[in-house]
Amino acid sequence: MQTISAMILTKEQTSFTELLDNVEGIILDLDNLHYYTLNSTGLFIWKQLRSGACQTTSQLAAAMAGAFGLAPAVIERDLETFIEELEGNGLITRSLSEIGAVTAKAAVADSLPNYEAPRLKLSNSLTQLTLSGSSTIATAAIATG
């Protein structure tokens, strides 16, 4: 069955690091050198999107419901708020696309922490990073490098 749905695509110019298994992660936006921290639920969502396991909010809700043992309706508002945050920070785009009905599969490890609302936090900009024994890196220097 084909349906029209908003497909979510992660920004290509990002780097992702999982700090602790299924607990915390960092996304670095390589265009503006901002980095964002993710809590465990945000990490789960990002991994689903980045791996291609889930491409729509309904697929994400189903995967989250299965992984966290909750009804999709319980997490839908938190999920939509988080997706809007990702989009507002330029980390994802949504496009209408015809996609086949896909069963969402959680591509994550066995043990997940308890559910908490997903969080994306702008932590800092690497353009403001102070290196040991040196002055602050100038934005212009990074832009020309």
Residue runs with pLDDT of under 50 for 5 or more positions: 101-109, 129-145
Counting DSSP E segments of at least 2 residues, the number of strands comes to: 6
What's the CATH first level?
A: Alpha Beta
Q: Note the gap between the termini.
A: 49 Å
How does CATH name the architecture? Answer: Alpha-Beta Complex
Element pattern in H and E:
EEEEHHHEEH
Average pLDDT over all residues: 80
What topology, given as strand order, has the largest sheet? Answer: 2-3-4-6
Q: Can you give the helix content as a percent range?
A: 25-40%
Gyration radius from CA atoms, angstroms: 17 Å
**Class from secondary-structure proportions:** alpha+beta
Could you describe the 3D structure shown?
The protein is an alpha+beta fold and 145 residues long. It has a single domain (2-144), classed as Outer Surface Protein A, domain 3 (Alpha-Beta Complex), CATH 3.90.930. It has four helices and six strands. The protein has helices spanning 40-51, 57-68, 72-88, 139-144; strands at residues 2-10, 14-20, 24-29, 34-38, 92-100, 120-125. Strand 3 (24-29) and strand 4 (34-38) form a beta hairpin. Helix 2 (57-68) crosses helix 3. The termini are far apart.
In short:
This protein is an alpha+beta fold and 145 residues long. It has helices spanning 40-51, 57-68, 72-88, 139-144; strands at residues 2-10, 14-20, 24-29, 34-38, 92-100, 120-125. Strand 2 (14-20) and strand 3 form a beta hairpin.
